[in-house]
Amino acid sequence: MTLDGAMPTTVPALTPDLLLRVERLEVVYHRVATAVQGVSLNVPRGKMVTLIGPNGAGKTTVLRAIGGFTAAEVATIRDGEIAYMGRDIRGMPPEETVRMGIVAVPERVKIFDTLTVKENLRASGFPVEKAEMQGVWDMFPQLWQRRDVRAVLLSGGERQMLALGAALCCKPSLMLIDELSLGLAPKIATDLFRLVRKLNEERGIAILLVEQNARAALELADIGYIIESGRIVFEGSSEKLLGHGDVMEFYLGRSDERSKSFRDVKQYRRKRRWWG
Ligand SMILES: Nc1ncnc2c1ncn2[C@@H]1O[C@H](COP(=O)(O)OP(=O)(O)OP(=O)(O)O)[C@@H](O)[C@H]1O
Ligand SMILES: [Mg+2]
Fold first, then answer.
1. 251: domain range?
2. Residue 153 lies in a domain
3. How far is the CA of 112 from the centre of ligand 1 (A)?
């Protein structure tokens, strides 16, 4: 549904400025549990898009489907389309999507604790040339300072920087970032978000950012989608979402209201409209 309350009627064409287009995506786990039910979303070239919503809403599943990581979780894409740079990538395995420039920074980051920062970057699976390594150091000077330190000794924020750095070594056009702020102090999370925005603005990398920290994500991103129980319930420019009363109330508002579902309110309002 759009912010005007109207259902989008036409399927957007794959214009040159659209990098990723997901249409009516449906994903089931173990052939029975539907986790994503008809999700459509777009990532324009060079833009930063955020997908926000409560626990279990289907955010990670959407990213898994795009990156091709469904098989490992016994998930199946039952319906829908995923187009990237004009190519149908639905069902493509991660080794192929990564070659096309789709690089995932997953929820539980895979970092080798016994390797140093520098060794971790080299282990990204791509031949990392000097220029790329320099690119990482330029973006994350803190990692340069810690380059010979074993990853196990890094702070939570530094680990996430390393994860972003390793992703950068894969020459991404699109980064799929899942819960970067998980378990981090707010200040550290804010610093990381700024670095993500910098990657987007300075390197032109499009970002699809999954976050539970809705406000921080919206303040950073260009476009936002809100997902609940596997469905998009709201979409629009970040500005619009930040300024919208219902979104404010149920995602960004007082902490005692956060557990309420947007759909509950919507249904309640609809009922009120119908019956009174
Ligand atoms: N590997 C799996 N096997 C079976 N069901 C799963 C699996 N992963 C997720 N699910 C289910 O799919 C639904 C969506 O989960 P998903 O992890 O995509 O949500 P999420 O929005 O990323 O949640 P969170 O904010 O907690 O990370 C949930 O009901 C979840 O229990
Ligand atoms: Mg998740």
1. 18-101+175-181+213-275
2. no
3. 25
Domain assignment present for residue 2? The answer is no
Helix or strand run (H / E) with residue 176: strand 174-178
**Within 13 Å and on the Cβ side, how many CA atoms surround 188?**
14
Domains held by the chain: number:
1
Ligand 2 mean position, distance from CA 276 (Å): 39
**One pLDDT digit (tens) per residue for the chain, 276 residues:** 545 554 444 444 556 789 999 999 999 999 889 999 999 999 999 999 999 998 999 999 999 999 999 988 889 999 999 999 999 999 999 999 999 999 999 876 678 999 999 999 998 777 888 888 999 999 999 999 999 999 999 999 999 999 999 999 999 999 999 999 888 998 999 999 999 999 999 999 999 999 988 889 999 999 999 999 999 999 999 999 998 888 877 777 644 444 455 555 554 443 333 332
227, part of any domain: yes
Closest ligand 1 atom to Cα of 33: 5
**Residue 214 burial by CB count (10 A; 0-12/13-18/19+): exposed, middle or buried?**
buried
56 lines ligand 1 (CB under 6 A): yes
Report CA torsion sign: 263, 264, 267, 272.
Answer: negative
Is 197 inside a domain boundary?
no
Q: Is 64 in the pocket of ligand 1 (CB under 6 A)?
A: no
Q: How far is the CA of 135 from the centre of ligand 1 (A)?
A: 34
Domain CATH for 58: 3.40.50.300
